[in-house]
């Protein structure tokens, strides 16, 4: 087994700046975010290899919460320790959270932002980013016919079961078939990444993750506090959604609208604005906290809600990492992980069509713009930030 790589000594400030740039430019949802992350940390900075990155993605797909944010937290933790974890989360999350809180303060003139031409260009470039991720990961993680077949099977499963549950089923099926059917000539696990999380700390984190799921509802019921009921609903939404993204929206709506904390009209207006900002969709909770009626509102309410919805994702990630890192490098698990890695490629391939392609490509012009962006990324090796800017400008120019 490979020797564990030591935690790099990058400063938390440097990690923050790297993720801040991603937080300002990563449009397109969690699948596109994973594509941006792969380009930045596997290809450009080489913080880890394709196999290690895919293993991390597979873990976060299994865990509840926003998968792309959890991948970012783990990358920051592995690079700069605990300050790096917080720096990665803050850099990737705060741009969209601040933008949505500002929108909550009455930037009504931007209500049509999600339909503007430059935002449409950003959606189109997300197609190229995901396609680049599929292209690169397929070459390294599906090098033979059996693993290519597993990727196709996973793609078909997620196409016919378009939900977070379908993704989990596809990963489980690919892992089982890999365990039973794959034969690896040299079953190596790639780079080994050490995280500063002991098993004891992991168990404590898992207990802290579960405690609010039981304690907050009881506390809210006994006290009759509307604030506690609101916090409980937001925590539960963050704790029980696998893969994050749009699935969290109906849970949040069921928490804030019937209680009267947020009107349905304000909820829908914020949802529209959330489509026009980069970063994780979980930052929608910051908007809800800012517009909520009651003691929690404004900047304070937005930041509290933001912390509450991300807290379970942090705790369950910390709880899982020490066990995951020790298990995934054992020889008996290598074929299972190889199957899961192929399944992740298939899931990305499926998501490239729906929702990324279906929400962005509306005509030949859109396809041409996506193809040009893909060529710049894959053939021209142009930095993703520049491609994003060019696609956004092209979308603005080409929109009637």
What topology emerges from the helices and strands here?
Layout: E1 4-5, H1 12-25, H2 29-44, H3 50-62, H4 67-104, H5 117-141, H6 145-160, H7 164-181, E2 192-193, H8 199-223, H9 226-240, H10 248-256, H11 264-274, H12 284-291, H13 298-327, H14 334-360, H15 364-378, H16 384-398
Helix pairs in contact: 1-4, 2-4, 2-5, 3-4, 3-14, 4-12, 4-13, 5-14, 5-15, 5-16, 6-7, 6-14, 7-14, 8-9, 8-13, 9-10, 9-13, 11-12, 12-13, 15-16
Task: Output the keywords.
single chain, 400 residues, mainly alpha, 2 strands, globular, disordered N terminus
Account of the 3D structure:
- The protein has 400 residues and is mainly α.
- It is built from 16 helices and 2 strands.
- The chain has helices at 12-25, 29-44, 50-62, 67-104, 117-141, 145-160, 164-181, 199-223, 226-240, 248-256, 264-274, 284-291, 298-327, 334-360, 364-378, 384-398; strands at 4-5, 192-193.
- Strands 1-2 form a two-stranded parallel sheet.
- Helix 1 (12-25) packs across helix 4, helix 5 (117-141) packs antiparallel against helix 14 and helix 5 packs antiparallel against helix 16.
- The termini are far apart.
- Mean pLDDT is 84; it is low at 1-7.
Helix content: over 70%
Main sheet characteristics: 2 strands, parallel
Identify low-pLDDT runs.
1-7
Main sheet strand line-up: 1-2
| CA-based shape | globular
